[in-house]
Amino acid sequence: MTKPISGKIVAQHNSRDSCWIIVHGKVYDVTEFLDGGSKIILKYAGKDATQEYEPIHPPSAIIDNLPPERHLGPVEEGTVEKVEVRITDEEKARLQRVEARPPLSEILNLHDFEAIGRLTMPEKAWAYYSSASDDEITNRENHAAFHRIWFRPRILRDVTNVDWSTTIIGHASTMPIYISATALGKLGHPEGELNLTRAAAKHGIIQMIPTLSSCSFDEIVDAAQPDQVQFFQLYVNKDRAITKRIDMRMAFDAEDPHEIGKSGSDKVDRSRGAAKAITGFIDPGLKWADISWFKSITRMPLILKGVQTWEDALEAYDQNLAGIVLSNHGGRQLDFARSGIEVLVEVVEKFKEKRGITFPNDRFQLLVDGGVRRATDVLKAIALGATAVGIGRPFLYAFSTYGVDGVDHALQILQDEFEMNLRLLGAGTIKDVVPDMVDVSNIRSHLVTVPRDRLYDINYESMQHARLRDTKAKTKL
Amino acid sequence: MTKPISGKIVAQHNSRDSCWIIVHGKVYDVTEFLDGGSKIILKYAGKDATQEYEPIHPPSAIIDNLPPERHLGPVEEGTVEKVEVRITDEEKARLQRVEARPPLSEILNLHDFEAIGRLTMPEKAWAYYSSASDDEITNRENHAAFHRIWFRPRILRDVTNVDWSTTIIGHASTMPIYISATALGKLGHPEGELNLTRAAAKHGIIQMIPTLSSCSFDEIVDAAQPDQVQFFQLYVNKDRAITKRIDMRMAFDAEDPHEIGKSGSDKVDRSRGAAKAITGFIDPGLKWADISWFKSITRMPLILKGVQTWEDALEAYDQNLAGIVLSNHGGRQLDFARSGIEVLVEVVEKFKEKRGITFPNDRFQLLVDGGVRRATDVLKAIALGATAVGIGRPFLYAFSTYGVDGVDHALQILQDEFEMNLRLLGAGTIKDVVPDMVDVSNIRSHLVTVPRDRLYDINYESMQHARLRDTKAKTKL
Amino acid sequence: MTKPISGKIVAQHNSRDSCWIIVHGKVYDVTEFLDGGSKIILKYAGKDATQEYEPIHPPSAIIDNLPPERHLGPVEEGTVEKVEVRITDEEKARLQRVEARPPLSEILNLHDFEAIGRLTMPEKAWAYYSSASDDEITNRENHAAFHRIWFRPRILRDVTNVDWSTTIIGHASTMPIYISATALGKLGHPEGELNLTRAAAKHGIIQMIPTLSSCSFDEIVDAAQPDQVQFFQLYVNKDRAITKRIDMRMAFDAEDPHEIGKSGSDKVDRSRGAAKAITGFIDPGLKWADISWFKSITRMPLILKGVQTWEDALEAYDQNLAGIVLSNHGGRQLDFARSGIEVLVEVVEKFKEKRGITFPNDRFQLLVDGGVRRATDVLKAIALGATAVGIGRPFLYAFSTYGVDGVDHALQILQDEFEMNLRLLGAGTIKDVVPDMVDVSNIRSHLVTVPRDRLYDINYESMQHARLRDTKAKTKL
Amino acid sequence: MTKPISGKIVAQHNSRDSCWIIVHGKVYDVTEFLDGGSKIILKYAGKDATQEYEPIHPPSAIIDNLPPERHLGPVEEGTVEKVEVRITDEEKARLQRVEARPPLSEILNLHDFEAIGRLTMPEKAWAYYSSASDDEITNRENHAAFHRIWFRPRILRDVTNVDWSTTIIGHASTMPIYISATALGKLGHPEGELNLTRAAAKHGIIQMIPTLSSCSFDEIVDAAQPDQVQFFQLYVNKDRAITKRIDMRMAFDAEDPHEIGKSGSDKVDRSRGAAKAITGFIDPGLKWADISWFKSITRMPLILKGVQTWEDALEAYDQNLAGIVLSNHGGRQLDFARSGIEVLVEVVEKFKEKRGITFPNDRFQLLVDGGVRRATDVLKAIALGATAVGIGRPFLYAFSTYGVDGVDHALQILQDEFEMNLRLLGAGTIKDVVPDMVDVSNIRSHLVTVPRDRLYDINYESMQHARLRDTKAKTKL
Predict the structure, then answer these.
(1) In the prediction, which pLDDT does D204 show?
(2) CA distance D35 to D228
(3) How far from chain centre, in Å, is Cα B30?
(4) Above 50 in pLDDT, residue A294?
(5) Considering the domain boundaries, does residue A274 fall inside one?
(6) Does residue B2 lie in a domain region?
(7) Contact C377, C168 (CB under 8 A)
(8) Residue B70 to residue B32: CA distance in whole angstroms
(9) Which residue among D136, D263, D463 places its CB closest to the CB of B136?
(10) CATH code where residue D396 lies
(11) d(CA B438, CA B383)
């Protein structure tokens, strides 16, 4: 074992020319990573960066990606100057709020996790999880689109026993949902994505492992139960052979999570950073012709995520993929992209017209994500032909507020909602949830009301109700 | 008569193993009811539960449903420890507000009862009456749907005499409305549903008696005038023969009204409770094939409530029922179910197409409920083919605030509105209110506006009016 | 001349059995008027009622309508007990605001009069002028409907000279507007309707004299210039022969203006009063068959006001009337009646289809009223086929705030707006304002958005702009 | 050189009869300009008007437009009474806010400039730049219309290299945008329009020089780089030969910018002033027949700005113009005129139908302006057939807040947005942005929601989230 290095020595390597950092008690020379222009690394030059490194990278990332000769060895205990952590008044108030979280029994729906999360999560986590691109219009439209679909419930059907289990790409699921891949789980909770893995096991549903997870792929797979099915989300790197072991997550430094914060909370040049990030670690040259290469290297079923038109859906079908995810990436990419649920309607319609096939369809499955908060949202997608629906942010808020128990509780809420709503719909099983059960005629209506004429509006003196007689008791309303 | 039991003895039976309660001075052993998991019963184990029992159960419920050997006899006077009733400051303020209610002459429309009720009703009553399921979207849509229907009034018709009486399932009614069945009337007023019975008699309209009334069926029927017509709402129990006399209202304990409260006021696991409740006391196995059994046991006309599609309406017609109520149960069941008034349009259209019949139609009557606040709402339904319209919550608010006089006044408001609006519509009688008098072309438009871009909106500096010159007198606006 | 009566004697006649009042120094026995149930008369029994009488009745009303034997003669000077007029603090503040009115040069559009009026008018006048029926939805829809019509302006047309004069029912008007008949002008200003007469003369437009004016018909006619054209609005009384001289305005007592106040400001039983009033002094038995009788007694052209469907418009045409006013009476009658501008579209369409005629049309003119605030509103109606548009409330606010000068200024604003907007539209004259210049495709869209799910909405944390650096200067936004 | 004139002498010429003013140290007799009724000139009679003159007129305007004999010569130094400039508290606060502007790196999108501008710009500049005509409905609709167009992005296309340069009327542009002509640049920044010229040069885009610029045409052209392309906006004066050298900008005095202020901030008779101004200096007699005359005097391509219907677009095409700008002049002219982007859809549709041609089209180019804030807005117009899009107000806010650097930064933001959004759209070049990439089906929907019934709405008690337990930490939400 190498001789421990004094913290004072490390502290001298604090510049572009020589930049050392300490992570988990080891010293690394990361000077070569500075080329990417990452201000964030330089900020910790000569210091202990563990706390900053932790939520963004899997433990092995630095070891794997840095040549062995840059692993300089352990730091000498007690020699590293403590980075004085100032707990701001704001942070103190937040920690008090964390203590004041209500018991899980008071969390009645998925919205509630977000409400508590907003008050109790570290600002950085809240900002990253809740934000989206440009004016965040697609992000909110994802949810709003479900409100343009209404139910046509049937009555007097025997729904003594209802069963909402299903099969997704050949794998059983107790519910027609799966956990979407979302990045940087440790921002919200020290166990990160493992919270999702464990709750998914308990409830018998599928987790999609994100490329940009905080936990390593191995950690997440190891946390799974023996028979637990997981999907893997693959962001395709430029270097298709993946011989260079630059972990994508390192590249993510180029998009310092400090910098992805909601505009207003962390004011930095977000748009340029994002543009660069996409250029930097996701291959913008990926094209239809590459699909055959992927099929040549794996026997696993391939699903294409991010399809947003029937034309691309048809191409995926013609290329014999196993399915697609109709998704706009949670509103994080092109603003004014339509919601997955709206695209679903168009896809089903055109497949019928162009290929004569209907959905759900085992040979080619349609998955949808974005904006889901209730089992009724899911059932609308099912009625329209989807096999299952991905849910992402709500589970992030669930583990950020209550850890694995939060995710478990969130899934139980959904289980209960499925049971009740299947009964109310008059459907005994998922197969009984059919197109006639929804009115989808307004789905394409992207309406904007005419700007109001304020001069008229503020002249209007609103009607008022009957009022209590004049007493001091009038304060409530 | 049995020897009175000391309150101290009763107090010892306060556990799952032996649970006694006192109601109206009598002691009961209700241990066997604990199996349903009712926390609420256990809360009163060994104590006087009268006050809690009163608004939820008819007086005879416990006597009827508990085997005689569990009727332990009277409690010894003066031996029951007084449950100290703390009147909170909030409750004191509410009682002051009750005192400050305006005179009925200031209540100008049905909205006003709700406004006063919100300020003066016990929180539990307000929470239960005003709440609905999930995001309460269907609940509000019920009212909003009427706003998408506009009038085409006719002029220069002799409306010196107008007459808005009609016939509902063969029974005369002074107005084309009836009182919908609603549960737990004593939460709002000690006389509960009897307020409705009495006011209905005075105004010559029909009351639908709820299955889950606070007053007993007998009490309600007894309160009726000799010739007063009442309808009975039947929730069908699993045990079709109804030999077991478990009153449904006992089962309701499983859904403690404390627990049905609006989320936010009483934070408990609402969704699971509701799911269980439905499973527990309404038979989810009820199906079309059972209709013939019902027809075999009664000669009364049968109306099917809760129809929400033309398909089910047609089935009801083909099974020779007397009519249907197009209803989503006040938005208390499946959220995003459409309003009754919207379904009415589809039903009338399809009956014309499929069976060639038009409405109103004596052989098969269409009733509608949900969201009605004005006689104009009712007249829209009439124009579209309904025979009558059910009104529920407004009458609950009316008796919760002013007892029977409130309901009487509410009905008088409607009488006056019918008179005036029939004249303004150019219709002498209910039969003159025809489809051409409404424009219903927007009824299916479930619109959601595109999310606003706040960055643009808050940059817009609204125009302002001419302003008073600079004096101290400017404060009003 | 009769001997003056002592005020003390008058004061004794203060009951239902004998009710005397003093108006303009004369004593009247109005006991017989009490049958109508008018509380307001009784309030002044035995007292000087002049101040209350003044704004509601023309001076001669009581003389004309009361039999001579009830004219008891002059009251003895100095014997009437002064009714102590308490000026409330609220009234003092209002009078200060009146003093603070901005100069007319700061009144830029018709909205501005209303804004100033709201702050400075007597509460009773504001309440009566601004209110409408039920939920006041039609009242606001009248204005909103214009916002669904958009312009298609033409360019490169020589608009050096523009001319917006026109001819209404054969009479020249400098603008395609007229002053609608509105009731109770003296509530807002001591000169009442005469303000309108005088300003109309100055601007060469037509005033429609209301049946329920505060000033007498003779006063209004006398105030006109020799060649000034006036229209007369006729509310038809039950007693068609008009032999009984009960002035309609007396009947109006049944609808005490105190009682017509906006709900909330004066809490009384408004709906029943209004219903009775309509029954009481406007003949609800008036029918199409009566039209010929009207034509037999006058050679003046007859226009039918209040038409709201193409069916009735067609009937009026077939009965050879000179024209119609498409109107819902300013939203004061049937709520959810459609706006005049919307009905116009349907009428023009159906006349083309049924009779092959187009508009504008001299033989049968279409007038429209309701919700107009800008010359652009008027031009939309003109483009769609109207001959002229009636404007009512804005002129009431204009004279209530600035007397005749206000109305003059309001009309000048309209003149200027017509000049500018005709140029911008590319139309040299009113005839050049044609259907192609408007897009009316949304006119029938009566849309209501889906109720929002508040749980989602309040979780959304709005984006924020760039902010100033932290200084004390941030307060403005 | 003339002998300097004493300020005291000048001060005596302060009336309608003789009105002298000092500008840049020279004395001018401007008595003859008073005929236009310009109060603003009279306000400075006998005084130094430089500060007021500066932002509105190019330096040479007074020299060019006043006959030499009215150039009275230099004023004697030190003799002019200093106009005491009172800096109000409000102005002091504004100057503090100017100091607190955030660094440009915190300006993330075009909205941000406006947000900072609103807080830091001189009130007069903000009022003039941000205002529009009537109720400013068209002004806001211009932006809102883009929200009714949604994207259909394509995936798996090689977008490694993306290129958003294009050619506008034969001239290369690095982006499919140009800088619209906007008036009175010096109100916002001393360098006025030169800021735009310089930033346009740096980014290789085209500036349209306004007729009513603060800087002179020569100054703006001189500031351009040798090869920099500029367009010139020509407001056509009545005197077509332009022999009389009355600079239009002098005429603009008739519309004193003080008087164009947003109603509410500067209360003057805006509508009449605007009507007069249009009559005064833009020839309302301009007509299609004049086009040939313009073509006869220049060989430069002519583009017609302000086209708002397909009919006029077709006429422009048939008259062989080089293109048109679909524009409603930023909502500053006819309110309720439709947005350029909406008109674009109609124009493209009708050209296909009437002439069989499609867009973009080199022979006849379609430009659009109004309401643009994001590259996505531009890309929507491109997809629909526009060649380029004009952007105006955002650049005014950019230089008003940060001078030329602001405009440079604004353009860089757009460059970055184009790069990212082309990738996300799946388009390698501007030519790949095709109609199928947008859903424009809602573009004609000018919707207004039904007025809400406040009585119902305020009775609704909104659902609430789970809440923190009762601690003092609850304040954040």
Answers:
(1) 98
(2) 41
(3) 30
(4) yes
(5) no
(6) no
(7) no
(8) 10
(9) D463
(10) 3.20.20.70
(11) 7
Residue C46: inside a domain, yes or no? Answer: yes
Which positions ≥6 away from D91 have C-beta within 8 Å? none
> Exactly one of B13, B329, B369, B402 is catalytic; which is it?
B329
Burial class for A296, CB neighbours closer than 10 Å (0-12, 13-18, 19+)? exposed
d(CA A148, CA A443): 6
Q: Write down the pTM of the prediction.
A: 0.90
Closest CA to B326 of B367, B372, B267: B367
- Residues B69, B108, single domain; the answer is no
Residue A223 has what DSSP assignment?
T
A156 touches chain D (CB under 8 A): no
DSSP state of A441: T
Q: Based on C-alpha coordinates, what's the Rg of chain B?
A: 25
Are B130 and B69 within one domain?
A: no
Please indicate, yes or no, whether residues D199 and D316 belong to a single structural domain of this protein. Answer: yes
Chain B interface includes C144 (CB < 8 A): no
Print burial letters for D413-443: b (CB count within 10 Å at least 16), e (below 16): bbbbbbbbbbbbbbbbebebbeeebbbbebb
| Residue A229 tokens, joined | 């099915």
D156 shares a domain with D27: no
Q: At A475, is the pLDDT very low, low, confident or very high (cuts 50, 70, 90)?
A: very low
Tens digit of each residue's pLDDT, chain C (477 residues): 578 999 999 999 988 889 998 988 899 998 887 765 566 677 888 888 888 787 777 777 788 778 888 899 999 988 887 767 788 999 999 999 999 999 999 999 999 999 999 999 999 899 999 999 999 999 999 999 999 999 999 999 999 999 999 999 999 999 999 999 998 899 999 999 999 999 999 999 999 998 878 898 899 999 999 999 999 988 776 665 443 333 533 333 323 333 333 333 333 333 334 444 444 446 788 999 999 988 888 889 999 999 999 999 999 999 999 999 999 999 999 999 999 999 999 999 999 999 999 999 999 999 999 999 999 999 999 999 999 999 999 999 999 999 999 999 999 999 999 999 999 999 999 999 999 999 999 999 999 999 998 888 988 888 888 888 875 544 443
Show Cβ contacts of residue A44 under 8 Å, excluding neighbours closer than 6 positions. Answer: A21, A52
- The answer to whether C85 touches C50, Cβ cutoff 8 Å, is no
> A390 pairs with which residues across the strands?
A178, A369
CA angle D75, D76, D78 (to 5 degrees): 115
Quickly count helices (H) and strands (E) in chain D.
19, 15
Please tell me which residue of chain C has the smallest CA distance to A456.
Answer: C111
How many domains does chain D fold into?
2
Q: Any chain C CB within 8 A of the CB of A459?
A: yes
Task: Using alpha carbons, select from D397, A458, C150 the residue that is nearest to residue B463.
Answer: A458
Domain that holds residue B296: 104-236+286-439
Least CB-CB distance to C108: which of D263, D306, D336?
A: D263
Q: Which residues contact C242 (CB under 8 A, 6 or more apart)?
A: none
Instruction: Answer whether residue C90 is part of any domain.
Output: no
User: Is the preceding peptide bond at B360 cis, omega within 30 degrees of 0?
Assistant: yes
Peptide bond into B284 cis (omega under 30): no
Provide, as residue numbers in chain A, all residues whose Cβ is less than 8 Å from the Cβ of C118: 459, 461
Which residue type is seen at D171?
Answer: H
Question: Which residue, of D52, D74, D96, is where some domain finishes?
Answer: D74
Nearest to A285 among D160, D449, D459 (CB): D160
CB pair distance less than 8 Å for C267 and A467: yes
Which residue bears the tokens 């989807």? A386
Rounded to a whole number of angstroms, the distance between the first and last alpha carbons of chain A is 72
Residue A473 confidence class, pLDDT cut points 50, 70, 90: very low
Work out the angle at residue D109's Cα, subtended by the Cα atoms of residues D105 and D111, and round it to the nearest 5 degrees.
Answer: 120
ipTM above 0.85, yes or no: yes
